[in-house]
Amino acid sequence: MNKKKYKYIYGPVPSWRLGSSLGIDPVSKGKKICSFDCIYCQIGKIGLLTDERGIFINCKDIIEELDSLPPLKIDYITFSGAGEPSLADNLGEMIRAIKKIRREKIAVITNSSLLHREDVRKDLQLADFVIAKFDAPTQEILTTINQPIETVNFEHIISGIKMFKEMYKGKLALQIMFVEQNKGCAQDIAQIAKEINPDEVQINTPLRPCRVKPLPESEVDKIESYFKGLKTISVYKAERKEISPLSDEETLKRRGKV
Ligand code: SF4
Predict the structure, then answer these.
(1) Backbone φ and ψ of 39, nearest 5°
(2) Do residues 130 and 198 make contact, with C-beta atoms less than 8 angstroms apart?
(3) 172 in a domain, yes or no?
(4) What is the predicted pLDDT for the residue at 3?
(5) By alpha-carbon position, which residue is closest to atom 5 of ligand 1?
(6) Domain count of the fold of the chain
(7) Could you tell me the distance, in angstroms and rounded to a whole number, from the CA of residue 145 to the centre of ligand 1?
(8) What residue numbers bound the domain in which 32 lies?
(9) pTM for the complete prediction?
């Protein structure tokens, strides 16, 4: 195994959504920085709850780490990590810089809370695959499940995803985490998903260690049936590749396993 310590890069990890993926964290420095504090978050306690964009990590530091990687066979370089990647004001700069030195496709996993902002949509437009979180059909459920900073508005999330879908040329997936608190409104969520009409819907339930229990496969199967007419993948059924991470400890930490 490679003994080098990476501060901003983790994985590669097998991903049911992305095949094999090398993760990049463009915001956190050892603490979770996010506009949400989801009840199912695997990362743990929030370090900074914010919806203000800022420069958290310099682009050159991430490029230096990428330059020092051993040869890897991966499908995607993915912006995710311990927080919300679109909070990074230099996300667009990072995507452009990575595209100059790597051939892999670039994915961004976002909680969608900033998609109503034009500058955020412009940055995400540079990615090949955007996975947008969408767990709630009302402000009330959003507050219960995602526990956002109070300035985050449910209507802005829906309109932001729709505006992004209109302008975006890459692949757009909705990722929906189903737990006890939103399973009863799965049909409403499916209806909004049909209005958005993404390329894919990822039906998820928290299988990694966290504060809430996952739904059983039978309930997830039933929920998946509400999305008929859209392409769906389910966390219980998707295939996973066999992959060795660069650093076991760092990768497990970011997946909530230490
Ligand atoms: S959006 Fe992601 S990082 Fe932020 S609290 Fe929710 S699960 Fe955790």
Answers:
(1) -65, -20
(2) no
(3) yes
(4) 58
(5) 37
(6) 1
(7) 10
(8) 9-254
(9) 0.93
